[in-house]
Amino acid sequence: MLKVRNLSTGYDGVPVIFDVSFEVREGEMVSIVGSNGAGKTTILKTISGLLKPFSGEIEFLDKRIDRMPAHEIVKLGIAHVPEGRHVFGKMTVRDNLLLGAYTLESDTDIKKVLEEVYEIFPRLKERENQKAETLSGGEQQMLAIARGLMSRPKLLLVDEMSLGLMPILVDKVLDILKEISRRGMTILLVEQKVQEALEMADRGYVLQTGRIVAEGTGKELLESDLVKKAYMGM
Amino acid sequence: MLLQIILSGILVGFVYSLVAVGLTLIWGVMDIINFAHGDFLMVSMYTVFWLYTLLRLDPLASLPIAALVTFVLSFLTYKLIIKRVINAPGLTALLATFGLSLFIRNFAQYLWTPNYRFITTSLVTDKKLEMGSVIIGIPQLVAALGSIMMTFLVVWFIKNTKTGRAIQAAAQSRDTAKLMGINTEKIYAVTFGISGACVGVAGALLATFFPIYPESGALYSLLAFVIVALGGFGNIAGALYGGVLIGLSEALGGFFLGTQFKYAIVFLIYLLVLQFRPKGLFGW
After folding, report:
1. Which of A137, A148, A222, B206, by CA, is between 20 and 30 Å from B95?
2. Which chain B residues are Cβ-neighbours of A80 within 8 angstroms?
3. What does the UniProt keyword field contain (chain B) (predicted)?
């Protein structure tokens, strides 16, 4: 579904990602793990069009997207839940969700997907008319994911959703992500919490200082010496 | 007499509010100060004037046309000028709009001479509403009501329409707005257009009782900056209150200290407020 080939990218001419290749197949949950500063967010930003690649190709559903503006990439079916949530704080929960559905044309579609999303996140329905900035961190993360689902994406990019959340809430949002995946969504997850991210993923990639150093199924990676040594302290 | 002063201060204040709403909208969404804002107002006044002179159209009838003209002018200002400098340091855009302001003013002078022009016969000219000792000029009343309507129309549009929500989103975070599938380039241009339409409406309403000349937007531009600073940059409600406040202080200051000092009072208030509330009276 998503194919990234020999991607190099970064900020203002300063490279951060070097010659990275990976793919996400339909229905999969794929995790890219690595420590802070490895370049995970940069990869997602390049896929969603906020950054342009220096070189390499990104293909989504057999279409080159690496030169497309971000708003057109959303239309093709990629939703990006950004790091740090970035909900629109001054707007209500409902308006945030409606913005997520910005690319949908018909009102009936929007209504339907809003109901579906409220079914997964009943808490958000309760807080529908509250300003997003008044939500707790965990609720804001839910809102960011829900907002991503509103565009009816084929691929969901989720960036560092455990950031700044209490462990109990991390489990909760991970459960929700599993549920969304079980319903058939293809997910590319980027996480610092290596163990959790690899446990739930079908496949994973390990990113170190802008390069992919290992790949495999979640289980293989968890059992590999590299992951054990670098991230589990074993 | 005092009631009379207060009332006329409030009436003109609402027109100031509308001009300031247009200015604060652009700041709120793009962090850009548009120095040519008042000159769009002048263009609107001339539009109304020429439609009146050449086609005998009443200013109220040509108001939508004037608003459309300034919408397009402002929209194109974004597309042709601002778009190229929006990612440059803040001063670049400021200087670009300053240059545009000088250009429009001088071009107007070249085309239409610096002479004052007046619209002497219109639906509202010389009509008055008398209530006891208080006399309200109909042109001023219509200008105030029209400005209130336009201000609320803009607020309603931003709060309740899809494009309005996209404007709010782009104002809060440009990148996140893009991730929603919002074409921020388009939204910025539309925001500029709406801002232009605000002064377009204000200009058409003012044209019935203000002289029309190439510099006639300058005062409004200046007052709008004061109002936006008082109301808090980017704060639409703040611009609304700030406009009325400035209209009032101008009228009262003129009454108690003499009209030659009325703007001194306005700017004194401005300086005082900035000393104690640098984010504006209604800023956060």
Report:
1. B206
2. 179
3. Amino-acid transport, Cell membrane, Membrane, Transmembrane, Transmembrane helix, Transport
